[in-house]
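PROTEIN DESIGN WORKSHEET
SECTION A - STRUCTURE
LENGTH: 360
TOKENS:
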């Protein structure tokens, strides 16, 4: 992978593979995600697009990833086509192929792909009202329900063991043992806090391993900022970032929603005293998710909502902390120690979910 940024000429050459008629396009870097390189493209006379390089350090098999993404978005397209009042052009992502029919093209920056820009929307890192929480959770529940009858072979696991929480804790212990940058001693409290969460964090995975809850097609990165919201009335327009859409547990998505919406502070809030759950937001998330997913969920899944939230929040705290110990190779960081700040904040949130929300 190339750590520098591509030149405008390079971007233009890549973009022309998808939209050959576009000349003198303008590329604006978007900084929302932690993994991929993303640009908004304005191509005079040829429309607006998103151009994105999938990070091959994270997604080793970008070609198969794109096969997943295309299957999922085309299935959603068929579902929305059957809904009479759907806002079809904005409800799912429309990907372009290259002039020679490929799903993308690779170079030192990653595997490039292009999709249509969706107008009149914005994303938010955090939510403030229970109505927003209800709507976001209903959108992800609907997303899963729509994918529950997707035909064809099992989706490829774009990152093997992505939400294998037990393995994430094992990797944490390996990083502590190796401690290449001697960072563990300076963060002993965080490490102890994470270890305390392990058993609760594994409850969801244990239920799956015991055969009590099924594998489903899920988004696997269901944070609030992965929903495009209508700029006028905030309704959920489209779910984006389908890179990890693959087999998983329904409550992985519900858990990520809780993680990203149940507290008004962002995931990298440095003042952990501000990181507390808001029970009214949690109630709205449960209600919203069940309003669209409940027909699909089994009784055990319906009882593991809080366990899903504990699991996903603890897991991401463990992942941020592991990356900190290993030298910040995985998540993009904005300043030294950013991953440690994220780990502490998500640890505080997991603790608050466990201590302050009722188990079903
Ligand atoms: C990463 O890149 P982004 O922001 O979509 C990560 C998620 C984490 C999230 C934390 C492929 O998502 O798993 O929950 O950061 N994605 C990957 O904000 O690892
Ligand atoms: Mg993502």
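SECTION B - SEQUENCE
RESIDUE ASSIGNMENT:
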């Amino acid at each position: 992978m190339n750590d520098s940024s591509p030149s405008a000429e390079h971007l233009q050459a890549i973009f022309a593979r998808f939209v050959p008629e576009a000349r003198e396009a303008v590329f604006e870097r978007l900084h929302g995600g932690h993994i991929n390189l993303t640009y908004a493209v304005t191509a005079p006379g040829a429309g607006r697009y998103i151009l994105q390089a999938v990070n091959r350090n994270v997604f080793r098999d970008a070609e198969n990833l794109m096969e997943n993404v295309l299957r999922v978005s085309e299935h959603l397209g068929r579902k929305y086509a059957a809904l009479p009042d759907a806002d079809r052009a904005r409800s799912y992502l429309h990907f372009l192929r290259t002039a020679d029919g490929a799903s993308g093209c690779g170079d030192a920056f990653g595997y490039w792909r292009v999709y249509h820009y969706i107008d009149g929307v914005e994303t938010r890192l955090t939510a403030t009202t229970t109505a927003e929480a209800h709507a976001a959770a209903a959108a992800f529940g609907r997303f899963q329900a729509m994918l529950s009858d997707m035909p064809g072979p099992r989706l490829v696991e774009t990152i093997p063991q992505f939400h294998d929480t037990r393995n994430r804790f094992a990797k944490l212990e390996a990083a502590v043992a190796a401690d290449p940058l001697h960072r563990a001693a300076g963060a002993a409290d965080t490490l102890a806090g994470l270890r305390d969460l392990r058993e609760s964090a594994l409850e969801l995975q244990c239920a799956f391993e015991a055969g009590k809850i099924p594998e489903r097609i899920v988004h696997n990165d269901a944070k609030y900022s992965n929903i495009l919201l209508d700029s006028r009335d905030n309704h959920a327009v489209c779910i984006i970032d389908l890179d990890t859409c693959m087999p998983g547990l329904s409550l992985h998505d519900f858990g990520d929603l809780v993680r990203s919406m149940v507290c008004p502070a962002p995931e990298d809030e440095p003042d952990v005293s501000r990181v507390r759950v808001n029970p009214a937001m949690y109630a709205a998330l449960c209600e919203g998710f069940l309003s669209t997913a409940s027909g699909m969920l089994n009784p055990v899944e319906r009882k593991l909502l809080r366990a899903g939230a504990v699991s996903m929040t603890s897991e991401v705290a463990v992942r941020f902390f592991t990356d900190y110990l290993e030298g910040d190779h995985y998540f993009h960081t904005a300043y030294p120690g950013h991953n440690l700040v994220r780990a502490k904040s998500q640890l505080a949130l997991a603790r608050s979910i466990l201590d302050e929300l009722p188990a079903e």
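SECTION C - NOTES
The chain is about 45% helix and 15% strand.
The pocket of GN1 (ligand 1) is lined by residues 33-35, 58, 221, 223, 241, 244, 267, 316 (CB under 6 Å).
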